[in-house]
Amino acid sequence: xxxxxxxxxxxxxxxxxxxxxxxxxxxxxxxxxxxxxxxxxxxxxxxxxxxxxxxxxxxxxxxxxxxxxxxxxxxxxxxxxxxxxxxxxxxxxxxxxxxxxxxxxxxxxxxxxxxxxxxxxxxxxxxxxxxxxxxxxxxxxxxxxxxxxxxxxxxxxxxxxxxxxxxxxxxxxxxxxxxxxxxxxxxxxxxxxxxxxxxxxxxxxxxxxxxxxxxxxxxxxxxxxxxxxxxxxxxxxxxxxxxxxxxxxxxxxxxxxxxxxxxxxxxxxxxxxxxxxxxxxxxxxxxxxxxxxxxxxxxxxxxxxxxxxxxxxxxxxxxxxxxxxxxxxxxxxxxxxxxxxxxxxxxxxxxxxxxxxxxxxxxxxxxxxxxxxxxxxxxxxxxxxxxxxxxxxxxxxxxxxxxxxxxxxxxxxxxxxxxxxxxxxxxxxxxxxxx
Length: 435
Prior knowledge:
- By secondary structure, the protein is α+β, with helices and mostly antiparallel strands.
- Among the domains are: 92 residues, Rossmann fold (3-Layer(aba) Sandwich), CATH 3.40.50; 59 residues, Dna Ligase, domain 1 (2-Layer Sandwich).
- Helix content is 31%, strand content 25%.
- It has 15 helices and 22 strands.
- The strands form six sheets. The chain has a five-stranded parallel beta sheet, sandwiched between helices. It has a five-stranded antiparallel beta sheet with strand order 12-15-18-22-19.
- β2, α2 and β3 form a beta-alpha-beta unit.
- The longest helix is centred in the middle third of the chain and has 19 residues.
């Protein structure tokens, strides 16, 4: 089986590694890839958002499966172009991808499907936004309606900061979403879908803010871990039954079946399970931790999803180890990351057992050195017998890598490893409030 992966981040690096381990896979090609991916797969300098160019390459390669990583090509309809050409593709069409492309559309689908989520207002003017902020009160939650690469959300106690973000969102879009704040720990669950069937992967938790102790601005994600030792029993089954399957059913009813991965971002609140957001692709950096533990052959599972055969797939198998991902970012990230700095220690870290160094914002300079080329530069992913062991190994790998101004959080999975995360007393699983 030849597989073509679209994207250039650490998420795609993780996908490439996992797909290459499938015994049915003969070749993995990435578009456009990055220097780390190029060490493990063939890379081609094709624009992943150009449907015609991707279709032409898939035909040239005789690709058996195309896996789309980032959100932008999905919202642009690249999956539609591939399907029209008869090429199996793992990723939703543009209409179903509106679940991520428009927060307001996602809220509409959840309301129709009876999916529990935060109360929200789609404000079209600054006055409407201000009224919604006052209605919900602090902490204020303001979300850009369109794609924002994980950085379009502001959660703050400061009303003026919240209103300023709403104003900036309205400068470039017709509406902004104001939500009620959700308490309780957050969970990320990827659910593989084939238009009818929903198959969950293992749950994870990510760390969105730049600073330790969840301080500072939101980022695309500074780390993640999986599984969740504190999660209530039956949580994954509850998410599939109350969130993923109803959403898949509703999209099928609308004539826009969802084929791909539905990222369910959830909060376990004092009023029960609530959806924070949907994404329509593998999340970064949770994917790096989740796929490190997957023992089932990924390419065969994704091909079954692309062909509408997920109900034929045996139960997924997982390694016993825990996984921790630490993101190493450039100086100035997330506001204005500095690029072009040579990265030291990559080979030493990559030589460590049970550890992978996955590339994201990297490039090769004229001297052949690997240099920083983006905000989130690397993901260091480690396996261990428990979270504490995985953390220790991940940070040992991180300590070997350096460049001027490098920054990372030192508290990824720390609270979970020490038993410091608790579900709110009012959380009652399926018995919780379904509103």
